[in-house]
Amino acid sequence: MEGLRRAGARILVFRPLIPEAMLGVSRSNDRDHRKILVVGGKVGFVGGVNLARVYRNYSDLRAAARGDFRHADWSDIAARIEGPAVADLQRLFFAAWTSRHGPAVEKRNYFPKVAEAGSERVRVVGSGPGRDEALY
Length: 136
Hints:
By secondary structure, the protein is α+β, with helices and mostly antiparallel strands. Helix content is 22%, strand content 10%. It has a domain of 89 residues. It contains four helices and three strands. The longest helix is centred in the C-terminal third of the chain and has 15 residues. The mean pLDDT is 79.
């Protein structure tokens, strides 16, 4: 994370794992595991894109094609979203940022006007820690 900070990123830690504090408590898995990337307020990505060295250079299909089934245990999939639904992703991010008392951000800079994109309607439905309502 230090490299990100040096590059100017502002980072918040959400419910850090503190082993001593977790004894007898079942909140260790009450995490915000969402992976949301919004670029310029116009393009969004959601899905299971893990950013760790262990995942680098491997995918299920490439590993399996080489017969390397040790590294064919996962398949990270993401969806690219364009159009008005990207603002919903941005709102989810800012809701988490605000709930963790992140530094003030001028939000209007992150919500550009965007045109409709594609032929399908997209609805972003957020879920995560502290949200008990059913999604379906």
